[in-house]
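lol ok so funny story. i was supposed to be doing the assay writeup but got distracted and ended up predicting the structure for this chain instead. priorities right. anyway since i did it might as well share w the group, maybe its usefull for someone
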Amino acid sequence: MKKLLLASLCMASVALTACDKKPNEAATTSTDNQPVATQAAVSLSKDVAADIKSDLTQIQTLSTNKAKEALEFQNEVTQAAQKNDKAALEGIVEKMKSYTENFNKELDALTLKSSEVDAVRSKMKQANNLGVELSEAGLKNPPDMNEINALQKKATEMQQALLTEMQNLQNKANAAK
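and the output, tada:
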C-alpha cells in the first residue's frame, strides 16, 4: 500500500511538472512581464511560427516557474509516505489541488496568439487535473488498483502526447526563424 501510494502521488507530481521539460531546445525566456488578460473573443492564428514561438515561450516560462513548487510536493510526498503519515499526505493532496487550480488559472491568463499552443494549454490543464485525480485515488482506503493503474496509464500517455506536440511546435517555430 505504501509503495502504491508513493507511486501514485509521485506520478501526480510528475504530471504537474511534465511541461517544465523543454522540448528540444527551448526558446529563450522572455523577461517581459506581460499583463494578465483573458482570451475573450480573441481570434487565434494558425501556422504562424512567430506566434507559436512567442506562445511557447510564455507556456515554458510559466511551467518553469511552477516546477519548483511541484518538485517540493514530490519531496513532501516521499517523506510523508516513508513515515506512513496519512494525515500529511492528505494535506499535501489538498495543497496540490490549490496549486493545480492556481496553475490552471495562470495558464488561462496567458495571452496566447496561436491556436496550436492554445490547444497545448488545454491539454496541460487536463494533465494537471488528472494529477490531482490520481493523488486522490491513491489516498482512498482501500485504494482501487484498477482505477489507479488506469489513471497512471492515462497520465503517462497524456504527458507523452503533450511532450511530442510541444516538440513539434518548437520545431515549427525554430524552422521559421
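Residues 19-40 have pLDDT under 50 and may be disordered. Helices lie at 2-17, 49-82, 86-109, 115-139, 145-175.
back to the writeup now i swear
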